[in-house]
Amino acid sequence: MTSSLFSHAPDPEPERAPLQVPDIEESCVVPRETDEAFSGFHEYPHLWWPEDFSTFREGMHPEFEGGSLTETSVDEEKALWATVREVRAGELLVLDWFLGHGASVPTDVEVRFEPAAAGTGTSVTLVHTGFGRLPDGADVRERMAGQWRNALQRYSRFMGAG
User: Fold this and answer.
1) Residue range 50-94, pLDDT digits in tens
2) Do 124 and 29 meet the contact criterion of CB atoms below 8 Å apart?
3) Which residues form the Activator of Hsp90 ATPase homologue 1/2-like C-terminal domain (predicted)?
4) How buried is 90 (Cβ within 10 angstroms: 0-12 exposed, 13-18 middle, 19+ buried)?
5) Residue 118 burial (CB < 10 Å; 0-12/13-18/19+)?
6) Stronger pLDDT, 16 or 97, i.e. the higher one
């Protein structure tokens, strides 16, 4: 017997379980207090974010504004990268991250700012999760791992790390 009320209606699609795709975790230590490290990440991404990892490339301008992280092109076009789910200045930034212009299923990015050991600055840890929600999650995760590593290296240099 079919599970549908009407014999001519197709059976509903079975719910797809999320894929098991590993998280990305990247970290760096910057020679700044936690408030300054947070500010450098949150207020100045346009000064360190790699153009190669953007929608509009050359001349792009990423910024946090109105609860979102957006990128603006030289022609004033906008692309939504993320919405801010939680922010604690100097401590934490939690984002719903959209992978690709017009993407509708977000992944999760959490950035923590904590005092580094022995007063050597701030440890910045970024964790990107939720790739299993995407149909091509494993491929996206592999691409993003290199991009986050590169972006944090550039952020670290911007903040004065050697």
Assistant:
1) 998 888 988 899 999 999 999 999 999 999 999 999 999 999 999
2) yes
3) 65-153
4) middle
5) exposed
6) 97
Q: How far is CA 63 from CA 36, 91, 104, in A?
A: 17, 19, 20
Q: Where are the beta strands (DSSP E) in 67-148?
A: 68-72, 78-88, 92-98, 106-115, 122-129
Strands 122-129 and 106-115 turn out to be antiparallel
The residue extents of the domains of the chain are 24-158
Q: Which DSSP string do the residues of 1-69 spell out, in sequence order?
A: --SSSSTTSPPPPPPPPPP----EEEEEEESS-HHHHHHHHHH-HHHHS-GGGSSS-TT-EEEEETTEE
Q: To which residue do tokens 């490339």 refer?
A: 57
Instruction: Look up the pTM and report it.
Output: 0.85
Other Cβ atoms less than 10 A from the Cβ of 134: the count is 20
The CATH class that applies to domain 24-158 reads alpha beta
